[in-house]
Amino acid sequence: MDWISTIGYLAASLTTLSFLPQAFKVITTRNTQGISGLMYVMFMAGLVMWLIYGVLIEDAAVSMANFLTLVFALPILVMKCRKG
Amino acid sequence: MDWISTIGYLAASLTTLSFLPQAFKVITTRNTQGISGLMYVMFMAGLVMWLIYGVLIEDAAVSMANFLTLVFALPILVMKCRKG
Q: Which ranges does the record mark as transmembrane (chains A, B) (predicted)?
C-alpha cells in the first residue's frame, strides 16, 4: 500500500472511529442535550447513500467505513429519539 | 453525470450538510451538554486527512466535501471547548 492510500485509510479510520466516543457518551450518561437529532437523521441517510454507492462502485473501503459509521451512529440517534 | 455518481454526490451532500443543524444548534443555544469533544477532535483530524488525501489524488469532490464539513464542524468544537 502506497503512502497516499495510507493517508486515505487513516482518514477513514479517524472519521469512522470518532463516533465511538459520542456513542459511548450518550449510552453511559443518557444525556442527549445539545445533540441535534436532525444532524443524525441527515448524516445517517447520507451514510446509507455512501454504503449503496460503495457497493455499486465495488469499493470495499467505502462500503465498510460507512457501514461501521452507521453502526456507531445508530445508538446516538436512537437515544436522541428516546430522550429528546 | 451517470446515476451512480448522482448517488455519490447526494451522499456527500447529506453527510456534509448534516453538520449545519448541529452547528446552528450549538451557536444559538450555546448548549454543548451531551456532545463528545473527543468525537469532534478525532472527526476533524480525520477531515484534515481526507482533505490532504483529496488534494493528493486530485479529487475535487473529496477535497471540497471535506473542506466544507471542516468549516461546519469547527464552530461545534470551538463552542465545546469554550462551554465544556
A: 6-26, 38-56, 62-79
